[in-house]
Amino acid sequence: MSRAPRIYVSAGEPSGDAHAAAVVAALKRRVPAAAVDAFGGPLLEAAGATLLDRMEAFSVVGFVEALWKLPAHLRLLGRVRDAFRGERYDLVILVDYPGYHLRVAAEARAAGIPVLYYIAPQMWAWAPGRVRKLAAVRRLAVILPFEERFFLEHGVAATFVGHPLRDRPPPPPRADARRALGLDPGRPVLGLFPGSRAQEVKRLWPAFRDAALRVSAARPEVQVVVAGTPYARYPAPGDIRILMGDPLGVFAAADAGLCKSGTTTLEAALADVPMVIAYRLNPLSFAIAIRMLQVPHVGLVNLIAGREVSPELLQGAVTPAALAESVLPLLDRDNTAARRQREGLALVRERLGPPGASERVASLALELAG
What we know:
By secondary structure, the protein is of the alpha/beta class. It is built from 15 helices and 13 strands. The strands form two sheets. It has a seven-stranded parallel beta sheet with strand order 3-2-1-4-5-6-7, with helices on both faces. A six-stranded parallel beta sheet has the order 10-9-8-11-12-13, sandwiched between helices.
């Protein structure tokens, strides 16, 4: 096109804000005059997008929890509908956040605007029959290797762009990472990764904390560190260190981890950290989810490997005793369980694709906007 494109970008939670910001930065490098309006957060804003709505009040996890946010999302959708009808956008880029974004995609198509959806809804896990809801999407940019085939087989134009986590720098040596965190470089480290959302942490922290106490009782030399977030509370931590901010340092320092399910497991895999995966929801949300689940695992590392690389504990099975029993062998690098996990994690890293996901998404975006 002769003029610079006008693009609307939407990201409803912190991880989406980060991935969307990387795409906007890549777009701006190629077309500095591109105009980008957005629903998002501070990273999108820093990348050069003009925020029309801020995401901080919207992010939720779980079927039941989402009901509380529905009125706010409907009001937001109304504002977005008006913007699509009144502005001459050349493209809409939606990042993750499917409950809301599938409705946005329909509004964009109704307004005649092509849609690029980055980080696909996990319909392969929950609801293959709902793939028809992606009919409004012109192109789907997927980040997990098995997704491209699934969506193509269901009639959606999908492209595997690689996983955006591959763009992160490799972790430093463990001893250096421990020194940087003020830890003893010669003593083993257990990392706790209960999540980035307050509700995730609230459900997992008591079991993770008490599991860590059991690990410390069995192996007093183990140092325990939490990858914390300022948005959550960590009651009664005892001797457990809580480090706020970027969790990469904790992954780099850890010999083994207790990880919530989701992208956290891929972060652990990239840092070569054997892990135990935990998944816990509101009881009603879990009852709904477990009946809808279409895949044999909930951990992304296990789904990508096609087998159980890391043990998974779900809902009521997330107990301090079970967590401690499962993670203790992983703290010993020479233990058979730890060695087998590392073999599986190497396979996962290979299957996540090469770096450059955001650049490939930017290429798709300019192709669609032109």
